[in-house]
Design goal:
heterotrimer, A mainly alpha, B mainly alpha, C alpha/beta, B: mainly alpha, 11 helices, globular, C: alpha/beta, Rossmann fold, 2 domains, six-stranded mixed beta sheet
């Protein structure tokens, strides 16, 4: 099970080559590579969401809580104590994991719509706190990451291309974590919970503990990615990093568009959704605010109606169609 | 007082869940639409928002029926993740469509009674609040009578309890779902219209009400109409009390905390699900 | 007779207004095969669910090998060695047969060890040929056997089988009963809910009869068959 087939290895090698070559096709400080960076970051975020939602079917609408915690943790540590974002990222992960534990304890018994509602409310709690605790977060006006000389130590770069490598590395790490979990005992247990929680308990799966572990890992990774976001954008406010539509739903949507529960799904989804959104922004922003968001919502509805299992299910579906065609 | 209005806008949400088993994340957007219908009825026809409320109900009822027919119906048997994100997508679409159509500005109406208030013993009660409350009670009673005594109402409750059995009795579950969804969003829009005299309409107003509605419904028990009434009153009281203790920004926070606590400890609501 | 492995006394369980179990007491000795019979709705499945911790009884105690299980979660009870199968079969439908069974082994083993154990369990139940099929694609009798293999893979001391033979034909049933006897030889204790009286009579050392949530009789199959209360409550009606 652990080995890949030669064909899969070739595919993976090609993909790696592409990922390495791609940034050189863009201006090193240009707009294109910024989009690419965001796509990779959101792919990683969707992958982190995928751990809980894809494997255990616990649909969270509150992952923005962890993301925002991560963004604020490293930024505040940098501003007040001059601590490098590299360490800040670890602190963020610890706080994000702790927050995930905190929200898991009361919500773990909930399933389906109830879980989605509770996590949604948790994200909103964090947004309200972020907006009203001005002394700490700077409130609704937002907060800036202090800009120093570009240096690796401070996770600040002269060229966006350098950020690209960082985002790529993040995506690879989160994807590896996802794959490792999927193949581990934890992954088997999560799948058992997804498919039949009562049966899982009866044959010895500690469903509560399993879900909490997954939630903590997912929350910690999401928070670490929040740090990367802060260091990439240099400025953010509570409504952005704790936003339902801007973070929680977008993470989920990317995973769903690509294929929920699969390792490749979030990557495909992000490479599709993020550029499309940016494109819509570019084209429509002159005409009216809201149009690109409208496109975003319509896309989500379309994907749900056409193929709720995302891109990853379209391939096999096409193959089946083709085979049917052959037989005729 | 405010609680009565909360109850009515939330009854719509609970109705949709009770009959179809779907949490409509976009429910609050229909409140926003109701406000806009009432606003334009006032701006173009000079209609008082309280009189426009039935119009808002009808318009959104029809829209709801169409949405159920075209969208919601297709995910009723789909996995929960599809149900959740379909209504989340609907939320995004409605909010931004409103943004495109109505602009991002805040709109309010002016009515002769807007600033007047009645004196009842030692209490001063603002007329728009009182009117909204009275309208809410009236519409709530109307719904209750409808569910209780009409054939449609009984058929709808039968569908909610056991869709299979209802089908065997010759009830078209599909039609009942459409009716429930349309009625649910229509009622919420009605609530949106009656609060217009003391609030401003904007495309994002739904967001403010979303959590409130969910708290009301969860407090009372998802799917229970009586629960929504109790929950509405409870949330009204919680809000008034927390206004005395906390600064304005934190009032919503109190609601959130109540919301999560209820979900965690009494996920079936204070009345214990009446299904 | 050795000391009781499972000792249930005075267990009561109510759902709303319905008293599903009242004052049920029974004891099962190690190595015994006990049959649990009774008309539909008598509380057999409820009793199983209560024993493995899916329901918490309002009264009574459940001892397994000197340990009180009331209030423990199902996975703790599984770890203590008591597992049940589900009457309507609760497989992980989107997983392969092997993965279904393997998941049962993860409680005590690493993945490779659990996989080996799962293959042996599949062989024992006689379905190793369908190991790579998706559970969703199986026939009902196949699913019931996967369910048994998965329970076996948790290496229980006592196994509660809820109508595992429901869809089997005569030859399959004979093979299955042979398997159960052999498992008993190897030290497993079994409690079996079954509607096929022929199978029950041939297989069990002792029968326990439930009716309306109460235990109305216990004894050897021969005694039970002659018990007037049982004939009245159960056999009489099913024969009619």
């Amino acid at each position: 099970m652990s080995g890949l087939s030669p064909r899969q290895w070739t595919g993976l090698a090609l993909l790696a080559a592409l990922a390495i070559a791609l940034p050189f096709a863009f201006e090193p400080r240009g707009y294109g590579i910024r989009i690419l960076c965001l796509a990779l970051l959101f792919a990683a975020m969707a992958q982190a969401w995928n751990i809980v939602a894809g494997l255990a079917n616990q649909i969270s609408l509150g992952h923005a809580a962890f993301f925002g915690i991560g963004a604020y943790t490293s930024t505040l540590l940098l501003i007040h104590f001059g601590i490098t974002p590299w360490l800040g990222m670890f602190a963020a992960a610890i706080l994000g994991g702790a927050a995930a534990l905190l929200i898991s304890l009361p919500t773990m018994r909930l399933r389906g719509h109830y879980f989605a509602l509770a996590t949604l409310a948790f994200g909103e709690v964090m947004r309200v706190i972020g907006n009203s605790w001005g002394g700490l977060t700077g409130g609704p006006v937002g907060i800036s990451v202090p800009f120093a000389q570009p240096s690796l130590a401070l996770m600040q770069f002269r060229e966006t291309r350098s950020s690209y490598w960082l985002m790529l590395a993040a995506l690879v790490v989160v994807t590896l974590v996802f794959v490792a979990i999927k193949r581990s005992r934890l992954g088997y247990r999560l799948r058992a919970i997804k498919e039949n929680a009562d049966a899982a308990e009866v044959i010895g799966v500690d469903t509560t503990r399993t879900k909490i572990i997954a939630a903590v890992i997912s929350g910690a990774l999401t928070a670490a990615l929040g740090t990367l976001y802060a260091q990439f954008q240099f400025f953010f406010d509570p409504d952005t990093v704790f936003g339902v539509a801007s973070v929680s739903v977008r993470m989920a949507m990317i995973a769903i568009v690509g294929g929920i529960g699969t390792a490749a799904g979030p990557i495909l989804g992000a490479l599709f959704v993020i550029p499309l959104e940016e494109f819509a922004n570019q084209v429509f922003s002159a005409q009216a605010a809201g149009l690109s968001q409208l496109v975003f919502g319509l896309l989500l509805i379309l994907v749900i109606l056409i193929e709720p299992r995302g891109f990853m299910a379209i391939g096999p579906r096409l193959q089946r169609l083709l085979r049917k065609g052959d037989r005729r | 007082m405010i609680g009565g209005v909360y109850a009515v806008i939330s009854i719509g949400l609970t109705l949709v869940f009770g009959v179809m088993g779907i949490v409509n994340f976009a429910q609050a957007e229909f409140l926003m639409l109701g406000m806009f219908v009432a606003y334009y009825a006032w701006a173009w026809l000079g209609l008082d928002p309280l009189l426009a409320a039935p119009l808002a109900f009808v318009v959104v009822f029809l829209l709801g029926a169409a949405i159920q027919r075209v969208l919601i119906r297709r995910v009723l048997k789909a996995p929960e993740v599809a149900q959740i994100f379909l209504t989340v997508g609907l939320l995004i679409v409605l909010e931004n469509a409103a943004l495109l159509m109505f602009g991002s500005g805040f709109r309010s109406v002016s009515t002769p009674y807007q600033t007047s208030s009645l004196q009842l013993g030692p209490l001063f009660i603002s007329v728009p609040y009182l009117a909204a409350f009275a309208m809410s009670v009236a519409s709530g009673l109307a719904l209750w009578l409808f569910l209780k005594s009409s054939w449609f109402g009984r058929a709808m409750r039968a569908t909610a309890q056991d869709p299979m059995a209802a089908r065997l009795m010759g009830i078209d579950a599909d039609r009942m779902h459409m009716l429930a969804f349309a009625l649910g969003v229509g009622l919420t829009a009605f609530g949106g219209a009656v609060i217009l005299p003391y609030l401003t309409a904007s495309p994002t107003v739904g967001t403010q009400f979303a959590v409130l509605m969910f708290t009301v419904v969860v407090l009372g028990g998802l799917g229970s109409v009586a629960g929504a009434v109790v929950g509405g009153l409870a949330v009204g009281i919680i809000q008034s009390l927390s206004a005395l203790v906390f600064p304005i920004q934190l009032q919503n926070l109190v609601l959130f905390v109540v919301f999560i606590a209820v979900l965690a400890f009494r996920p079936k609501g204070m009345l214990g699900a009446a299904r | 007779m050795t000391a009781a492995l499972l000792e249930v006394s005075g267990v009561g369980k109510r759902f709303g207004g319905l008293q599903a179990l009242s004052d049920v007491s029974l004891s099962v000795a190690a190595g015994e095969i006990v049959g649990l019979i009774g008309p539909n709705g008598a509380g057999k499945t409820t009793l199983f669910s209560t024993l493995v911790g899916l329901h918490r009884p309002e009264s009574g105690s459940i001892w397994l090998g000197g340990r009180d299980l009331v209030g423990l979660k199902p996975h703790r009870i599984a770890a203590a060695g008591m597992v049940k199968t589900f009457q309507n079969v609760a497989l992980f439908l989107d997983s392969s047969v092997l993965d279904n069974v393997l998941t049962g082994g993860l409680m005590r083993h690493s993945i490779p060890a659990a996989r080996d154990l799962a293959r042996r369990c599949l062989e024992r139940v006689g379905i190793d040929s369908i190991a790579d099929k998706l559970a969703r694609d199986l026939s009902f009798p196949e699913r019931a056997r996967v369910e048994v293999a998965r329970a076996l893979c948790t290496e229980p001391r006592i196994l509660l089988l809820d109508e595992a033979m429901a869809a089997l034909n005569h030859a399959e049933m004979d093979a299955f009963m042979a398997l159960l006897r052999q498992l008993r030889e190897e030290g497993l204790t079994l409690v079996v809910v079954e509607h096929h009286m022929r199978a029950i009579m041939a297989l069990c050392d002792r029968l326990v009869v439930l009716n309306f949530g109460q235990m109305i009789a216990t004894g050897t199959p021969e005694q039970i068959a002659r018990d007037p209360a049982v004939v009245e409550a159960y056999l009489g009606r099913s024969a009619a």
